[in-house]
Design goal:
Layout: E1 7-9, H1 19-31, E2 36-41, E3 46-51, E4 55-61, E5 69-71, E6 79-84, E7 90-94, E8 99-100, H2 101-114, E9 123-125
Antiparallel strand pairs: 1-2, 2-3, 3-4, 4-5, 4-8, 5-9, 6-7
Length: 127
């Protein structure tokens, strides 16, 4: 029996967000200045999305305390700032450890819909 996990945006409604609606929910949050979003799955996994509106840090964790795995853009030089966390802290990340926002949206939509990275995604396990 195949069980698909559901995902909710932590500080929004407890109603699960569908893969078809998750990108619009993220865009709405970004437009309102909320650059950090955490999603929690029904199986206890977490998906962290932090953006500066151009690039995004995307981390998938198996549970509390898991170092997780994150999307990467190998060979990209430089770094970007403007990643504002919900506590007001501003972060800067190497561009190699973030992905362009459109790619991040595609990855989030796929993970919410299937529970895993797309076959063509580039990601690194941090465990």
């Amino acid at each position: 029996m195949l069980v698909i996990e559901s995902w909710v945006i932590n500080d929004d409604s407890p109603v699960p967000v569908a893969s078809a609606g998750v990108v619009e929910a993220l865009r709405t949050r970004i437009d309102s200045g909320q650059l950090e979003t955490w999603l929690t799955s029904s199986s206890g996994r977490f998906l962290a999305f932090v953006t500066n509106a151009e690039r995004a840090m995307l981390v998938l964790l198996e549970g509390e305390g898991d170092p997780g795995e994150h999307a990467v853009d190998p060979g990209t030089a430089g770094s970007s700032d403007g990643f504002i966390l919900s506590n007001g802290q501003g972060d800067e990340y190497p561009d190699e450890d973030t992905v362009p926002i459109r790619e991040a949206f595609r990855l989030v939509e796929h993970i919410v819909g299937t529970g895993s990275w797309p076959a063509d995604a580039r990601w690194v396990v941090d465990r």
